[in-house]
Amino acid sequence: QVQLVESGGGLVQPGGSLRVSCAASGFTFRTYYMSWVRQAPGKGLEWIATISTNGRNTYYADSVKGRFTISRDNAENTLYLQMSSLKSGDTAVYYCAAERHGRVGLKDGYDYRGQGTQVIVSS
To answer: In angstroms, rounded to a whole number, what is the distance separating the alpha carbons of residues 79 and 97?
Structure first.
């Protein structure tokens, strides 16, 4: 069956860096656009980044542009999000999500979405 399993979350100090990963299985990973969305405590889902099937095109929300980098390894069926200059406002559950039609900026409505990994930015 389809699985998207996020890992790498945790507690990090403001200004620090963290990389979260998403291991995909059960579908043809290389043919899907992949995204990261997040949900902060008490708030709705927020789209933050998308990467094209071959990794050549990336898209970012203004809130993370210049601080976060999305990447993928199609040989390993893995998606990454490198986060730097983290702020308290980045505290959220981070979800990876798969979408086959190349749409960018979706908060929800993905074909598949993982269970999430918690990132807490605090001193």
So the answer is: 10
Taking only the tens of pLDDT, the chain with its 123 residues reads 999 999 999 999 999 999 999 999 999 999 999 999 999 999 999 999 999 999 999 999 999 999 999 999 999 999 999 999 999 999 999 999 999 999 999 999 999 999 999 999 999
Nearest-angstrom CA–CA distance, 97 and 44: 16
Report CA 77 to chain centroid distance, whole Å. Answer: 14
Interacting residues of 50 by C-beta distance below 8 A, sequence separation 6+: 33, 34, 35, 36, 58, 59, 70, 104, 105
DSSP string, 64-107: TTTTEEEEEETTTTEEEEEE-S--GGG-EEEEEEEESS---S-S
- CA 120 to CA 123: how far, in whole Å? 10
